[in-house]
Amino acid sequence: MKLYDTPLAPNPRRVRWFMAEKGIDDIEIVTLNLMQGEHKTPDYVAKAGLANVPMLELDDGTCITESIAICRYLESRYPEPNLFGRTPEEIAFIEMWTRRAEMLVATPVMIGVRHTHPAMGALEQQVPAIGEHNLTSATRALKVLDRRLAESEWLAGDRLTIADIVAFVGIDFGRMIKFKLPEDLPHVARWAEAMRSRPAAQAGMPQRAPA
Ligand SMILES: N[C@@H](CCC(=O)N[C@@H](CS)C(=O)NCC(=O)O)C(=O)O
């Protein structure tokens, strides 16, 4: 199998993080440079169906896009540790928090970065007001996460799941524009530190020079 990837973008990072939590190391990583349009070549778009990463190409040539669909496939192939839930209740609860993480936080932060970071002009017709509005929404939604994390160690229960990966990777992408966690969210701060210190947080990320 091959994972078509790019280092800084959040959606491929979800998959790399997920693979690292599971110890999956037998998938070839193919790095594309989005700024040079390597995800827009006719060959790639013919396989993926759209000019997006990540894409997982199976050994029989089947191609899967959408980071969560790829993670679900990998969960079936590499079941442990379980990150999508086992019982009907757990599966629904993890799905609920994954969707909240994506819709309330990860997507608004991504739109915020795309519309306000100068380099993103290569990929987006930028409207800074759209970016600012989305960043305000994401900041407001972090209160929802803080309330949840006041009662639970992880977003969907007592262990890390795909919901935590989606939420944290989304928030962390905001570093591109120095998006900071508000200081009055102690539970988000505790959880974010726990996420940041997991080895999987480094998976495929460019190493930063020591300060
Ligand atoms: N919903 C998709 C989103 C994929 C996506 O938006 N990928 C971005 C990188 S994070 C991309 O390929 N952007 C290319 C572009 O905007 O030209 C997923 O979860 O995989």
TrEMBL record:
One annotated GO molecular function is:
transferase activity
Q: Where is the signal peptide?
A: none
Q: Does the keyword Transferase apply?
A: yes
User: GST C-terminal domain location, by residue?
Assistant: 87-211
- Extract the InterPro entries matched here: Glutathione-S-Trfase_C-like (IPR010987), Glutathione-S-Trfase_C_sf (IPR036282), Glutathione_S-Trfase (IPR040079), Glutathione_S-Trfase_N (IPR004045), GST_C (IPR004046), Gtt2-like_N (IPR034345), Thioredoxin-like_sf (IPR036249)
Boundaries of every GST N-terminal domain copy: 1-82
Instruction: Enumerate the UniProt keywords alphabetically.
Output: Transferase
Q: Which one Pfam family would you cite for this protein? A: GST_N
CDD domains from the UniProt entry = GST_N_GTT2_like (cd03051)
Which family does this protein fall into?
Answer: Belongs to the GST superfamily.
* Name of the protein this chain belongs to: Glutathione S-transferase
- Record organism: Phenylobacterium kunshanense
